[in-house]
Amino acid sequence: MNIPGYYYDEVKKRYFKITNGSTNELYHNNTIQQLHREEKIMNKPKEPVRSSSKLIYQDQSITNLKLGLSVPNESLLEFEQFCSLSRTCCIDYRHETKFWGNLYIDNDQYIIITDQINRIKLIAVHSIIETGNEISDEVMIADVINAPGPRVNRLSEIINSLGLLPFEILTMSSSDDMLFMNVISESDLDNPQIYQNFILMGQIKKSRHGISEFVKIDRNMDFFKFTMNLSNGEIKKDLQHLFGMNVIEIQQDLYHYKPQVLKPIKRFFITFSKLTKNYLLIGTNVGNIYMLEHEDYKFNAVTKFKLSNKIEKINKIEKIEDYLIISSYKTLIIFNFVSNNKWIFNNHDLIKNLRVTRIFHYFQITLISYKKIRLLNFDISTNKYEIIKDINYTNHNIINLFSIATDKKVVILNQSNSRILIANLSNFESKSFELQISKQKINGIIRIDKDYMLISLKNSDNTSEFQIYQT
């Protein structure tokens, strides 16, 4: 029975008052309206397109939208926007780059990149859009990872003192102006079992001298103090190794890394990290997951989950309410960390990435493999998986992860060395097109601002070119 002003939650089996307050609330009126739209789309009959095996919905005709004969669908509108991308300019850059994500510093948006020697740099989004043919050093914030902090030596000097090879960045995640990253360094080939993990936990703020100058506020001391005070010896030992605390020495409010002889140890390192406003989620190469809770980045609790001895490298974790949605190779796991129950789905293809949306009493999960996009539902009330749709791309290999996955169910993927694929997950319409490049390869795609997309291209001499596309 529908009661005006109330929403019936199928899982909790009770009514909840629909609110008009914070949009973060689960039963906000905008959220409920979106849920109703999603369910309406999912249950709407479909009709085949003439001379095509793909399916569309009748009310999603652009003509009908313009005539006002149907309700606008946000995913279709955004899909049409991306399908009309046009290149605005090309920007030369001296180094090969890799995109890691975004930072928001005093409400300004910055892109995190690394060059071929693993230096972290930031690019101001507004400067990219306004620039000419080259990114100047004033736009770049160089060597964040090796910037001397108030309590720590340069990471490169630490690695040299331990006799290790140059480090490799394994994961990097950000939330607002906070940055978490982990790196690993190995010994030479004579001692391949000796290696060392390090982390960087920092807050990046503008200095008073101008937009091109930044200071790194080191937060590792808070992190290390939290870890040192853990009462659970097993978790404490794990985190000390994963965070590089096994080679540090703390004296009062100062710490430093001390040279020592490292001992061979089974490879144990972080393979996934995600920093949010309330949690730091960490997955490892042996299937362990650590959920660290914090308030204003002051960590106060940590929980360790070992899902199964058969689960190894964790490559993605999403948290929705009391659930963790996890991928590992060809395995998808939905884990309720309150009841400690898990439900496993074995996929036929390697899971490159996933996207999760909560719709009423089920999770809608999109799995990305090399040549397939799979739409999967998990019913929370029955704890069962159901395959809704498989979209195969047999002619082109999807070689990259999700490059862009919007809240409006549009994804953009790197489909080949020069081609990108745009797919609308509401009706599975897709478009693939070639970029305007020559003798280059797509190195990464990231969305900047609402109307712009930045694509990094790798040149034959290992330098980069940035192309900006506008919707």
Automatic annotation (TrEMBL):
It comes from the Eukaryota. This is Uncharacterized protein.
